[in-house]
Here is the input.
Amino acid sequence: MPELPEVETIKNGLAKHILGKRVRDVSFDWPKSFPNDPAQVNKYLVGATINRVRRRAKVLIVDLDTNYSLVIHLKMTGQLVYRHHSIAFGGGHPTDSLVGDLPDRSTRVTIDFGAGRLYFNDQRKFGWVRLLPTPEVDEIDFFKKVGPEPLDQTLSVKDFIDRVRRRKGTSIKAAILDQSVIAGVGNIYADESLHYAKIHPASLVGDLADKQLSKLLEGIRHSLTVAIESGGSTDRNYVDAEGNRGSYLKYARVFRREGQPCPVCGTTIEKIRVAGRGTHVCPKCQRH
Ligand SMILES: [Zn+2]
Here is the structure.
């Protein structure tokens, strides 16, 4: 699944190409990928103009001037591809569909702007696109449950600490991977931020001081920001909205660096298992 920085990068790339465009036509081949009432689609999507593209956690939201929004969840194998003459970009799961002729067998939804088309491709059909009234977007279950955005400056250190402390019986890694504690932190950024804060991922939340948790929030913000700036990061091979492979892993401190020296102290990085996930630690910087 793409992590927060990949989705942020897709959001920025999409905005560049579709803002202000008017939807001419919509087609889809798989009702589960686009489970909307056709009458609503004709009324509120066809003919609508794209007003805004935004992100919440790992979900994209495209606001229309009809006061409806498209909510897009890429899940495991979803991708968004925009094409217009020589302009071509795609983001999401890396398959040949990012560069090949479209629509193809993985295309679930096509949004035709007359000048340009946006394709939602999804091989395994776990992802989805939903059209709903903009004021109802925040009310869908997923958004009601998801925690605050880590990069939102209105999230205070105290709020963060309070939220994490509600999970005091679990490991700190499990706590920050929990999307209801904080939005959008996946395996890469959990490992990176825990190394930044010199916290062992298996430490119990109840054993950590406020100062350590404060440093951890700083680490989450730092690693996400670096990833967004470097074009979206990427676990395995997510490509960004321009079709470039993200480069964050070049800057990773510990993630997928087992057997290599810690950039801080030179100790060999180890791979262990915490919270059911492959976890990368420096045994010296992150004592347990
Ligand atoms: Zn170290």
Observations:
- The first strand starts at residue 25 and ends at 28.
- Residues 233-238 have pLDDT under 50 and may be disordered.
